[in-house]
Amino acid sequence: MASKLATLALLVALLGCVAHTCQAGYGFPYPSSAPKKSSSPAAPTLNYAHYYRTCKGAEKIVRDVVQEEIKRNRGIGAGLIRLFFHDCFVQGCDASVLLDKTPANESTEKFGLPNIGSLRGFEVIDKIKKKLEAKCKGVVSCADIVAFAGRDATYFLSNKKVYFEMPAGRYDGRISSASETLFNLPPPFANITVLEATFAAKGLNLDEMVTLSGAHTVGISHCSSFGDRLPRNASDPMAMNPRFASSVTRKCKSASSTVDQDFKTPNKLDNQYYKNVLNHEVLFTSDAALESSKTKRLVKQNLIPNMWETKFKQAMRKMGSIAVKTKANGEIRRNCRLIN
Ligand code: HEM
Ligand SMILES: *[C@@H]1O[C@H](CO)[C@@H](O)[C@H](O)[C@H]1NC(C)=O
Ligand SMILES: *[C@@H]1O[C@H](CO)[C@@H](O)[C@H](O)[C@H]1NC(C)=O
Ligand SMILES: *[C@@H]1O[C@H](CO)[C@@H](O)[C@H](O)[C@H]1NC(C)=O
Predict the structure, then answer these.
(1) Quick one: 145 and 254 in the same domain?
(2) pTM for this one?
(3) Which site from 50, 162, 199, 266 is most exposed, i.e. has the minimal number of CB atoms within 10 Å?
(4) Ligand 2 pocket: which residues have CB below 6 Å?
(5) Each residue of 230-249: pLDDT tens digit?
(6) Any S-S bridges, and between which cysteines (predicted)?
(7) Are 225 and 116 in contact (CB under 8 A)?
(8) Cα–Cα distance between 229 and 31 in angstroms, integer?
(9) Is residue 339 part of a domain?
């Protein structure tokens, strides 16, 4: 059954996702990737009071909508956290991930293999943008909304434990291309070397990579995204444990089936993920890879009470500063799905 999944995924990859009709999740084989260097990982333009004068109460609007949507569906909170990550790693945190295709651009980031069919939360961003445009037209960028929403989803999914400020002042980008997603976002079958390099290319160190991976404490994955791990390979020291592998195999009835990332506390943002890593109860090769000698110490450190939570706040802020755009190379979009 699992090999059937892999075959399907392979077909999808070969056909290419530019058709916009392909299956969620990853296909194999996968092009070997050389992450590109971001031009400016530091962001001197961001500050905590950015909308204080120009749109007072903007952050409250974002938080209220995120809370409401998470009340309806906790999974959407996981989607918003991932949306922030996928925005920041491709073209910087500039809302390029939100752009729809147009006749002028038939294949934007959201149609890239890591995004198509699995990224969610776009409608939440639209809802927030609509409210903010009604309140202060043309002021709040879509890139800042994505960053605030990722922060607020973290807050609510942690049952208000993980609270932090997110500086703002990002401008929205005008460039979005599906072909840039594969090389900038780490694939689920990445080993520790690839993971380290992909994050380093964005100015994030090994500790921050391990800390941010902890976001896999919430949300789901399509079975096609870990087809390389099933059936279980008994001679692979990083394989899933047999009990977990059979439980996941049972849940993966088809390529479109989904499984919780954290089978213990699937809807709570906590440090359970790191226990799962040590117990070989995680989905991806990239999760299992954190048990490598290079990072095992960091995984264990994140089990110290409050350690991961503290590090996660800082790492999310740092991720939010990757290659941010300014007035010189960006704009404040009127509609988050279209350039002005
Ligand atoms: C370390 C490298 C990473 C890899 C290889 C990776 C890969 C993936 C994959 C393949 C999925 C499942 C997609 C699907 O099939 O539905 C996923 C889900 C998710 N990822 Fe990651 N990810 C990584 C890091 C991160 C980071 C840094 C964050 C955020 C800080 C993040 C947040 C999430 C969340 C919240 C989900 C669940 C989304 C949902 O339920 O809609 N991931 N990731
Ligand atoms: C449109 O797509 C191309 C790649 O096909 C990309 O190079 C370009 O930057 C995109 N333009 C916009 C406006 O997003
Ligand atoms: C990690 O994966 C890359 C790309 O597939 C490969 O070139 C490299 O040899 C691998 N490294 C290890 C330590 O397995
Ligand atoms: C199983 O894992 C071993 C050790 O990592 C590896 O050499 C072998 O190629 C794997 N087999 C399959 C079928 O992936």
Answers:
(1) no
(2) 0.91
(3) 266
(4) 105, 107, 174-177
(5) 999 999 999 999 999 999 99
(6) 55-136, 88-93, 142-336, 223-252
(7) no
(8) 18
(9) no
Structure confidence at residue 24 as a pLDDT band (50, 70, 90): low
- 138 known member of a binding site: no
Q: How remote is the CA of residue 194 from the centroid of ligand 3, in Å?
A: 7
Ligand 4 pocket check for 236: Cβ under 6 Å: yes
**Cβ partners under 8 Å of residue 39, min gap 6:** 323
The answer on 83 and 138 residing in a single domain is yes
Mean pLDDT of 323-334: 97
Residue 55 Cα to ligand 1 midpoint, Å, equals: 32
Residue 18: count of CB within 10 angstroms of its CB: 15
pLDDT over 60 at 63, yes or no = yes
The identity of residue 317, as a single letter, is R
> Is 331 inside a domain boundary?
no
Q: Is 235 in the pocket of ligand 4 (CB under 6 A)?
A: yes
Residues 154 and 239 in one domain: no
Strands (DSSP E) contained in 174-246 are 220-222
Determine whether the annotation assigns residue 262 to a binding site.
Answer: yes
Range of the domain at 9: 2-21+186-315
Average pLDDT over residues 107-122: 98
3-state DSSP of 77-92: HHHHHHHHHHHHCCCC
Percent of the chain with pLDDT over 90: 86
Question: Residue 170 maps to which CATH number?
Answer: 1.10.520.10
pLDDT bin (cut points 50, 70, 90) of residue 296 is very high
Q: What is the pLDDT of residue 254?
A: 86
Q: Is position 163 within any domain?
A: yes
Asked whether residue 116 is domain-assigned, the answer is yes
